[in-house]
Amino acid sequence: MPSDVEFRRLLIDLDDEMSNDERKRFIFLLGNDIPKRKRDEPLVDIFTILIDRGRISESNCNYLVELLERTKLTALAYKVASYSTKHTPSTSISTVLESSQPTDNTNVSSTGTIDNVPKDTPTLAELVNDINSEDSMILSESEQNTPTDIKPMTVQPDLASMFLYLENIDLKVFENDTWSDDFLKKINVNIHPYEYQRELVQSAIQAGNTIICLRTGGGKTLVAALLLKYYSIKKMALSKTEETKFLGFFIVPRRAMLKQIFEKLKTIGNLRILACDEHYDITKYLKSYDVIICTPQKLLDCLKAKTIFMSDIDLLCYDECHDTVVRNQYIGIMQYIMCRDVDHIPSVNSLPIIIGLTAVVGLHRSSPLHITNHLTVLCATFNCFTITSVLKEDNEAELEQYVCRTSEDEIICITKQKKFDMLRLSIEKELRNLILQLFLSKDTNPLRIFPEKDIDMNGYEQNLEMLKQSEQKKQQFPSVILINYILAIYRHLRSLADLTPDLVLSDLKDYFEMIYKSREHPIAVDTLIYNKCQSLLKTKLTQLEESEQILLNPKLDKLVELLKKHTEKPNSRALILVERTFYAQKICEFLGNHIELKCTIKPCWLVSQNGPDSKKSNKKEDSVLIDFRNGVYNVMISTDVVRASLDIPECSLVLRYDFVPDSIGTVQARVRARRTNCVYYLITTKDSQNYIKELDSRQCEQDLKEVLEIWKQIPSHEFKERVVEKQTSLIKEWSESLTKALATERIVSENTELIGDVLCRACGYHLGKLSRLRQYEQSYFISDHDFYNRIEEKLLPEPKEYVATLVTGKALCGSKNCRAKLGCIQMLKHHSSISPIYPLKCESIKIKLFEKENGNETMILKKQWKQMLFKIPPLEISCSENDEDIYYDAYDVVQTDV
Ligand SMILES: [Zn+2]
Questions:
Q1: Are the CB atoms for 575 and 581 separated by under 8 Å?
Q2: Where is the DED domain (predicted)?
Q3: CB within 8 A of 442, min separation 6: which ones?
Q4: 3-class DSSP state for residue 717?
Q5: What is the dihedral of CA 713, 718, 719, 720, to 10 degrees?
Q6: Is pLDDT at 83 greater than 90 in this prediction?
């Protein structure tokens, strides 16, 4: 029997992992279960006796778990318990599931992205986004639904420079010749591009569709901007009519990059450019702008809704076209060009030019064959048959000379301090044990859930997130509570390497207290876990205090030292980049309270804007940036590489605090540092993941070079053949999945009358009927005059004011044993009669949808409202404001709420 073999292997593992002492203690505890004369035998024999006597078996490990727990071998006990949960026929468990769970979960198609075949589990990308967007361990004040004051960024060239004398421009020069100052003046370009950039532009024009490879810092965006200009001039020059208009899209993978790309494209002159953030309707701007910068999803939505047609677009530029996170959206757009046999796709008369931009073909240590394959797929995906890179020797030399490499940054490796490390490891161990014990105990983990991964493995956190989502779907509230606690402990555990033990433990304690106390009637599991955690944390904190040897983190010490030296210079600014919002906040607190720094350092911190659903920048955040620029603060700690390093010329020190961002971030930080000659450091330790990651990203630069060398060896016609072949199979694959996805979508959207319920994602508490769900601008809420009874209002001491609304508080789950945050309370200034509304955060709710056709019930969990497969009706604002069904009296709510 194969499962028996697995069980025996598990026992062998136990044997391997026990020390001699532990083995002795374990056997000692067995007592009379083992005959005296056998007690000195190897553990394998002891296990054999236990199996023969029926004490342990493949289907019953309880005895073994108990013994191991008593021997204080928590990790091993955990291992056996999680094994046995996976392998025992789950009779008792499944009945629990069924009785408390009337929903049929077998056909759940909830996490499927719109452009793809539905899948059951979230993709890694979704998880990464998820984690980025709720990176903080603190409840953040700003919300997804917080209205914004940002207008779309637009540029309209002033009239003087607007007009190009098209007849004077020789496109042949643009295409083939050197560019004199006179020529550049004619096309109204005020920057003189490098020769290597000219080579790239001209090769790209030759190639038509192409992927431009240029290493970080080389100025790809300028190359793209020049191409946009070329194609727009060409179109205008060739056209005979007045109405001819150029339309290009510049697609960026992250919203945070909108501004930065916008600033760069702006410098090119004549083009009317618009950076379109999530909440603006692109279609309104099509006629008045030449280039629209947006995220792929934005364009994809328009193509899907048929408000934009591929035929209308002259040029599509994909930034960071290798980016795997947005790969599906990029493909989604390409499907509108390539999957012409699918019914839904409108026919395309004229194809847009495709330009892909990339700096990373990160494939080191791959075989040449692998590399060629990768390039083939990349090209096939973007309908390109060639790659454009700097080939001329002179130009390569120029690139070397003028564009410096990230490898010039100084890495400061902190040497280990034995005392600190011992303390850190011991605390880590206790927190790790706490996590294992919470999973192990039948009281705190009544439904016996275990994550697939071990706590020391990479991706443990994502694994927990995934488990949480599946428990939410199954409506298992106790498990959700358990995982929430564990996630917090785990995140804090990891931060021990970067912060002081005292900061970490006291924050965890306060956090648990805040969360727990917000629930009037916590469920039994909640209380149990809470008490367990608090008692451990209290003990540890007292121990730390009593030991009187307050140990700081050596990395923090180094930071303090560098800052001390740096702030001696007049009017200096330092930027510290960290991995998590939590670190930013805590380090800011730490520096602010540091005795030696108190007089010289004025720290502030800035929240990240990354992630599709994260908070929008509001006045307060922007004022932090302005105050930093003006010198009100002289040290800024931030997680947002892109925004933080936007044009702060005063900044003279950029310091990454054990933080190695993705390639984009590195570029940003680099470009800035180079421009202002500021010092640039990475603080890390030699054994850290980040040190390896940093070396890796340096390797990437080297790789690009090698990848291009390999590519150059392939004859161009041969490469083209391979791409064509790959493309045929891709198109087939895409068309199939697209047809399938569209069919599902149709079923859901034809089901016009929505039957179902909106529930709290954490606990399943009923919030309202799905048919009452309404959309008003960016807010989605339940329009029901009874709604305030379903939630707990928590008012802010002072309302936050925005252009059209006031946010007066938070809305928490109405269940007294949950109190999860659901959204905010909003007063609409122009519609006071319907205020307040309670916009719900999509990530805090789930929808139980009843399908009429087949009688199935589906649980839908999405990250964004826009991803819902059905249309949510807009709020009808009628003239008669007495319509009781929709409107309710604001004062009613305020007065009854206590
Ligand atoms: Zn709830």
A1: no
A2: 6-82
A3: 448
A4: helix
A5: 150
A6: no
Six token digits for residue 238? 């060739």
Q: Are strands 679-684 and 153-155 parallel, antiparallel or unpaired?
A: unpaired
Distance between CA 446 and CA 522 in Å, rounded? 16
- Phi then psi dihedrals of residue 790, to 5 deg: -90, -10
CA of 487 to the centre of ligand 1 (A): 18
For every residue of 557-597, DSSP letters joined together read HHHHHHHHHHTTSTT-EEEEE-S-HHHHHHHHHHHHH-TTT
Query: Which residues touch 129 (CB under 8 Å, ≥6 apart)?
Result: 325, 611, 612, 613, 863
Taking the C-alpha atoms of residue 709 and residue 703, their distance in angstroms, rounded to an integer, is 10
pLDDT bucket at 341, cuts 50 / 70 / 90: confident
* CA 351 / ligand 1 centre spacing (Å): 50
Q: How confident is the model at residue 101 (pLDDT cuts 50, 70, 90)?
A: very low
Cβ proximity of 202 and 175 under 8 Å: yes
Structure confidence by residue, pLDDT tens digits, 224-248: 999 999 999 898 888 777 778 899 9
Distance 761 CA to ligand 1 centre (A): 6
Distance 766 CA to ligand 1 centre (A): 8
Q: How far is the CA of 85 from the centre of ligand 1 (A)?
A: 27
Q: If residue 67 lies in a helix (H) or strand (E), which one and from where to where?
A: helix 62-70
Cα of 760 vs centre of ligand 1, distance in Å, is: 5
CA-based max dimension of the chain = 104
Say if residue 403's pLDDT is above 70: no
Q: Per-residue pLDDT averaged across 301-316, rounded? A: 91
Distance 466 CA to ligand 1 centre (A): 19
Distance (Å, whole) CA 890 – CA 698: 58
Query: How far is the C-alpha of 554 from the C-alpha of 664, rounded, in Å?
Result: 29
pLDDT at 637 over 60: yes
pLDDT of residue 99: 32
Burial class (CB in 10 A: 0-12, 13-18, 19+), 704: buried
The Å distance, Cα 814 to ligand 1 centre, comes to: 7
Please determine, for residue 856, whether its predicted confidence score (pLDDT) is greater than 60: yes
- 849: CA distance to ligand 1 center in Å? 18
3-state secondary structure (DSSP) of residue 247: coil
Say how far apart CA 412 and CA 503 lie, in whole Å.
24
> Does pLDDT of 666 surpass 80?
no
Quote the tokens at residue 131: 């984690």
Band of pLDDT at residue 722, cut at 50, 70 and 90: very high
Contacts of 142 (CB under 8 A, 6+ apart): 607, 615, 616, 618
Give the helix/strand (H/E) hosting 807.
Answer: strand 805-813
State how far the Cα of 711 lies from the Cα of 469, in Å rounded to an integer: 43
CA–centroid distance, residue 807 to ligand 1 (Å): 22
CA of 791 relative to ligand 1 center, distance in Å: 9
Q: Which domains does the chain have, with CATH numbers?
A: 2-89 (1.10.533), 156-403 (3.40.50.300), 428-496+501-536 (no CATH), 552-706 (3.40.50.300), 753-896 (2.170.150.30)
- 3-state SS, residue 762: coil
How much distance in Å is there from the Cα of 811 to the middle of ligand 1? 11
In the predicted structure, residue 105 carries a pLDDT above the cut 60: no
List pLDDT tens digits, range 366-376.
677 888 888 89
The Å distance, Cα 514 to ligand 1 centre, comes to 16
Place of tokens 């807009």: 874
How far, in Å, is the centroid of ligand 1 from the Cα of 817?
7
Query: What does the DSSP 8-state code read for residue 880?
Result: -
- Distance (angstroms) between ligand 1 centre and the Cα of 762 equals 5
Ligand 1 mean position, distance from CA 822 (Å): 8
Distance CA 836, CA 888 (A): 9
Distance 635 CA to ligand 1 centre (A): 40
Instruction: State the distance from the centre of ligand 1 to the C-alpha of 818, rounded, in angstroms.
Output: 5
